[in-house]
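Here is an idea for our session: we take a single protein and study its fold together. To get us started, please write out a protein record for me. Start from the sequence, derive the backbone structure tokens from it, and show both lines together. Go ahead whenever you are ready, and we will take it from there:
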Amino acid sequence: MTHRRAVALMILVTLLWSVAGVVTRHLESAASFEVTFWRSAFNALALAIGLGCLCGPRLWTELRSAPAVLWWSGLCWAVMYTAFMVAITLTTVAAVLVTMAIGPLLTALFARFFLHHRLPTRTWSAIAVAGIGIGWMFGHKAMEGGAELGGVLVALAVPIAGAINWTLLQHVGSSARDADSEAVDMLPAVLIGAVISALVTLPLAWPLQASARDISLLAFLGVFQLAIPCLLAVRLARVLPAPEIALLCLLEVLFGVAWVWLGAGEVPTRATLFGGLLVLGALIANEALALVAGRGRSVELLARDIRP
């Protein structure tokens, strides 16, 4: 796969991820936990079929003897699936997406404290600026009170669970390299997370009240907004460097806000826009500087190799 094609597919992935908000705004009768249940159930079904075709019978054999880290990762996926859908039923899509955008910086922070990775000054600066942006948005939501603040607090569980998940994945990969062995296949954790999310939210969603139209929209989300782009993202992670993927993932925020603005008339507040600009600006600056630094090191190594 060429780099240009990988970038184009990653943009498609973020476009698919971004439609959750606008589709949810057109539901008729499904409530918050029922929305989560149906999306997770259809996601689990699609992943079971997709992974079954990719991995064959060994998928189910590996699940029966899966190590604990796979189940911890699955629990993180379940929190992300559940908290995201509940959050967008409580507050604006823009506020949820801006809160989720701090995920890469939280991941860097967790890697520093739990994996002892060194963080450059630019990343510490980005964390500080993004913190100001989130704090600004939280402050205004707190003054508004009610479900708006609750929605942002629930949304905060998504980047926290994501940061824990990516830290686990980094730990698994580095441990395998240190031991010169094959790393644990963490892809089934995505399926585990979908199943856990569906099972946990079913009792909370009962009795089910979704209309046939609602179920069809949530089936679309489960298959095309979650299962397919998640499988694509895992494949693209073999081609694109992590900083570039993180930078491209920010398009989900822009696409998601645009979708609900144009498709549901949901205009983001000034506080959300200001906080979002701070968060996105910090992330873009951090990831762009990381790419420049990485290319600079590559040129330096190349010059060293061809030096007579």
Notes: The chain has a mean pLDDT of 79. The first helix runs from residue 3 to 17.
